[in-house]
Amino acid sequence: MLARLANKRIVLGVSGGIAAYKSAELVRRLRDAGAEVQVVMTPAAQQFITPLTLQALSGNPVHTDLLDPAAEAAMGHIELARWADLVLVAPASADCLARLAQGIANDLLSTLWLATKAQLAVAPAMNQQMWAAPALQANLAVLRARGVAVFGPAAGVQACGDVGEGRMLEAVELAARCADLFETGSLTGRHVVVTAGPTREALDPVRYLSNHSSGKMGFALAAACAEAGARVTLVAGPVHQPTPARVRRVNVTSALEMLAAVEQAVADADVFIATAAVADYRPQQVAGQKIKKSADTFTLELVKNPDIVAAVAARTPRPFVLGFAAETERVLEHARQKLERKRLDMIACNDVARADIGFQSDDNALTVLWSGGEQVLEKASKSLIARQLVQLVAARLAEEDKAPQA
Ligand code: PMT
Questions:
Q1: Pocket lining for ligand 1, CB < 6 angstroms
Q2: Domain identity same for 356 and 243
Q3: Which of 54, 184, 235, 402 has the fewest CB atoms nearer than 10 Å to its CB?
Q4: Does residue 225 lie in a domain region?
Q5: Which atom in ligand 1 lies closest to the alpha carbon of residue 312?
Q6: At what angle do helices 51-58 and 20-32 cross, to 10 degrees?
Q7: Cα 288 from chain centroid (whole Å)
Q8: Residue range of the domain that includes 345
Q9: For ligand 1, what atom is nearest to the CA of residue 195?
Q10: Is the Cβ–Cβ distance between 250 and 318 less than 8 Å?
Q11: More confident residue, 198 or 3
């Protein structure tokens, strides 16, 4: 169930306590499960473990100061608070729990705690007598009443020699408790490769052949797949779209570059979604210098580009392949032919003769076809259409998982 942590953004707050050494192992466990981790340390925590250790393990700079202009310029505390899906304080010392319960915002961690809308959790760690103290239990009751998840503590021999409750849970157990806080996404644990945008086929150093694709549909699909828990690789033609959160983007220009990037990315993919408007042809010769204007007519010799989606569908083993069909007439008939000819699992038919959807528009409408099924997705924003399409793909994958292996 650790797969539920895939693509999740976790702020790990480390407060001062001997159990801080276990935070290093926790960062590793969370990252192994696919989560992104940003560490925030209190001044006391830095007496027990160095920021450098947690920086090396998390792959991100460790945040320590509330009023550090350099750190704020990189990722301000409000930005960090907004970034997180979960803020977990582990270990949470008695002092830290008291400040969190009272809403005292006198360091970076306690300020971030107040500023975030993310799920909150604490993993207490302290001496057994402190754990049993009424003041400590009253603070915990306040936190629990506010929906804060409390992980542990465990009982056993303590660093101070006492025996009893107060040991921080082990990293493996904490990672599992974090995972339990998240629902399973429909594509959790899957790798999805998406192509988006147009390709540009150079004629000479200043001119190219291309089309009207803005990349909006493909980028919306990449975002929807990441939201559904997938690891996403987005192979993008030249477009001006911001990279969706939790998506790895590979920029390409031509169809040949897109094919090379897709072949690299698709080796371990579970799903391939071909949204890109790939140029079917490219100039046979690319002039080394700008072509000069001379005769009244100009003949251009074109050669066929490789069909990327068909190449992916021909692989063994192959991912689940969803293609698009941009058509201006007899949309369903042509799309059905593409579904069969390219050996796709599913095709989304896009009527690009309509001015209100398709290329450039913020909206789209699709008819989705697969062997034995059909679903109309009525006109809606591309992000909503993308989510609906992801659910159709996830349902087909779930059916495949259930089907007996040949
Ligand atoms: O980018 P937007 O502005 O948001 O617009 C979205 C869109 C209209 C581009 C998108 O919804 C869409 O319809 N994409 C497919 C465009 C296209 O090239 O369709 P096609 O019918 O020519 O190609 C059929 C399929 O083969 C597509 O999945 C395409 O990616 C793929 N193909 C085509 C040629 C080629 N050489 N390699 C391919 O993989």
A1: 195, 197, 213-218, 255, 274-278, 280, 305, 307-309, 323-326, 338, 350, 352, 358-360
A2: yes
A3: 402
A4: yes
A5: 39
A6: 10
A7: 40
A8: 191-284+297-402
A9: 30
A10: no
A11: 198
